[in-house]
UniProtKB/TrEMBL annotation:
Class of this enzyme: hydrolase
Membrane-related topology note: Multi-pass membrane protein
The organism of origin for this protein: Tieghemiomyces parasiticus
Pfam families linked: Rhomboid (PF01694)
Cellular component, GO annotation: membrane
Organism phylogeny: Eukaryota, Fungi, Fungi incertae sedis, Zoopagomycota, Kickxellomycotina
Family: Belongs to the peptidase S54 family.
Subcellular localization, as worded in the UniProt entry: Membrane
Protein name: Rhomboid-type serine protease
Amino acid sequence: MAHANGGGPYHTEFTHSATREFPEPNDGITVHSSQAGFHDPLGSPGSQPHRNLLGSPGSPLPNDPFYPPRSHVTADHDSAYSSVYTGNPSFHHGNVDSTAHLGYTTDKHGGPTPPHIPMVDLKGHDGGPLSPPHQTGPPPRGFQRVFARRRPWVVYAFTLAQIIALIIEIVTNKQLTGSAIQTDPFNYMIGPSVTTLIRNGARFVPCMRPGSYSSQPAPCPDSGGIYTANSTCTWEDLCGFNGFSDDGTPNQGFRFVLPIFLHAGVVHLLFNLLSQLSYGAQLEREIGWWRFGCIYILSGIGGLVLGSILSPPLFASVGASGALMGLFACQLLEILFHWHLIHSPALELFKFIIAIGLTFVLGLLPGIDNFAHIGGFIAGLFAGLIFLSNLPFDKYTKTIRVVSWVISVAVIITLFTAGLVTFYNGTDPEDICSWCKNLTCAAIFDSCKAMYK
């Protein structure tokens, strides 16, 4: 049984294979069959082909007197898949008929359009830019994003790793303190103590390089972060991970990466996952897994590097906030580069500024590393210029694309190199920027004042 929908439905039953030869113009149509009883639906007047193997659906065969010519079609069919951008050449890379290569045309044949127009990756399936979506009616507010038929596996993997890491933190806190979460003082993030976070890989300067604090007593891992005058624990005891180098020098550089997957508690993780599983997953579908992964990790490291330079050295930091701020920086790039394709772009930019502004304001509260936000956002801007594949560069602006890519790579390398050199030189944050500490913990709070004494 063969069943297809074209200009008109029909079906043909046969038991053996049949072949049809399409003749040259002005010749007759010959049908060969291995069964004498085979009936050719094109052999009787009034029949209509269900499919044209020589061209686009609905186009008549050469010298076919039975198929109504296109001039006879008067129905003004409005496809449910028509796009408000169909006539915009710039939206289709200069080609108004963006679906011609799929076997469809923009001419109206009077019949229904195919039920699905597949997404087309103009660079194959390696995460390159995608063709625009076909939408019904006016475009929705915000971005006109196109999704490849891929799952955001990197987002899922990172999310799973972060959930597992939090479970390990809670189990470790239970083993060290007898309680799953810190209760004295209460951790409002509903999570472990600071010492447990340090023990599990938080960004903590005394575990990464030596400094003036090296001669001070360290809080014991089971103390919940409370310093005592008679403490006998060392920084090596607190930092864990098999201690330091053979000569006792702190060298746990992996703390520039590992904190991306750690969180201060359930509340902290849930807030980050809201953004990660929504916009993060959306961005990965759009640009591909490896591009997304590079932007995410570079942004997270950028935030941790800046925080290690400018934050007080005894300030522990965990969380994916820096990485997420890098993704939001990519959102800013999308707004600016796709300005002419966004419905109410000024409104979208205003909402973005408000959201980012609130994030930085919240970063002034005690316990939140605003330098991770700032560093992640800056790193994300340049990483986005390097890895975003959906920015509207074409062959006419290829030079601009290459120049921006080279500059962004140079800036990223320079920032990371300068940051790491500054950190390992042991430069005091006060010598770098005496007032910058107020950007992460405003001195209007008593706990911040105590930290700066």
